[in-house]
Amino acid sequence: MNVADAAELAAQLDARGGHAVDSPEQAGLILINTCTVRQKAEDKALSFFGGLKALKHGRPRGAGPLIVAMGCVIPKRKAEIQRQFPFVDVLLDYSDPELVLAELARCFPPLAAMPALEAPPPAVNPELCRASFVTAIRGCNHRCSYCVVPSARGPQRDTPLGDIVAQAQALEAAGAADMTVLGQNILAYGRTSGPGAPGFCELMEALLARTGFRWLSFLTSLPADLTAEVCQRVLAQPRVAPLLHLPVQSGSAKVLGEMRRGYTVEHYRRVVELARQARPDLYLTTDLLVGFPTETERDFEETLALVRDVGFDDAFMFAYSPRPGTPASLELEDRLPRPEKLERLKQLIAVQRELGAVRNRRYLGQELEVIIEQRAPEQTTARTAFNKPVYLAACRQRVGGFTHVRINAVRTSSFYGEER
Ligand code: SF4
Question: Ligand 1 test: best mutation among 144, 182, 320, most atoms within 8 Å of CB?
């Protein structure tokens, strides 16, 4: 979501005559989009602020580049940032491109002097062959007990279907090769737009009917909202990428309940089956959170068992850290020592790595369609419809074009192949 917001802001500034530079020293405006979803992201933002101090050193207040920090770290740590980094000129509690631009028009004179645009330009990734995003939902109405998103990004707001289609068509016209439609829980699309509003299936059907992208993807899906209808009407469509990111978080019924995820382990197993029936070539990925405050050794064993049973192609795995203000941080004592959490994480990563490697071997010898992302004399980088990098020693196809490759070797995070 932050990548999509940053791309949209960059496109908007570009269309008004700005251009990206290579280093902060060359910039007239520095925008820092912060993220609080995990402690590490938050720490990175603060350390980046520290690195900008030299740019303002010895200059009178207001001189030098305008430094604007935005996003969800700001409301949480505003006083501390103002005290520690007084050279940051503007602090914005949000990162919605529209709101940020309105504020910039007030405080950044070069932008204020530029004429308003009739229609916003598409946020096309500068490397057109890389995935482009359209944000369909901002915020989230779910209340997972560990998650900071509902307070950091606010309640769910849907982008009107017509606007999403128009943005997708503009991306396509600008040369984007494929597209991903985004929402914290994309399956909830339309739920807050009133009775009779188009939902997720209608949104994806409209995109399929009114754009010609070879691959359409969607992110992220809350398992509670995955249904047989979604599997049939969306996932089974050949132009929808065979990729499902379905974060399970835990294999323990007790922990899932305390996380307030809204589904059971049985439901999760059932919908995975439905998805695989609808799409036999499915590449299934997940998120796993270990060391939740009440997680016992037995709960953790249940997570390992689920991982072994379901067979994920890939997983994003993290150790729990309390996010201030969330129900879990307020109501549950974080008793599990950090080294214990990290030990469980290490075990989980080892199990998933091994299983993922075995699962990925099914692609050995297969022919897959890929898009060429980058060419260099010794190696070409391509990407499959399910977002796996494929390295090729030689390639005839141009960057941005599609081609077929035979997979000769598989590694944990990438494949190696040759063009057919
Ligand atoms: S569905 Fe849960 S984890 Fe995902 S953004 Fe919403 S509250 Fe957070």
Answer: 144
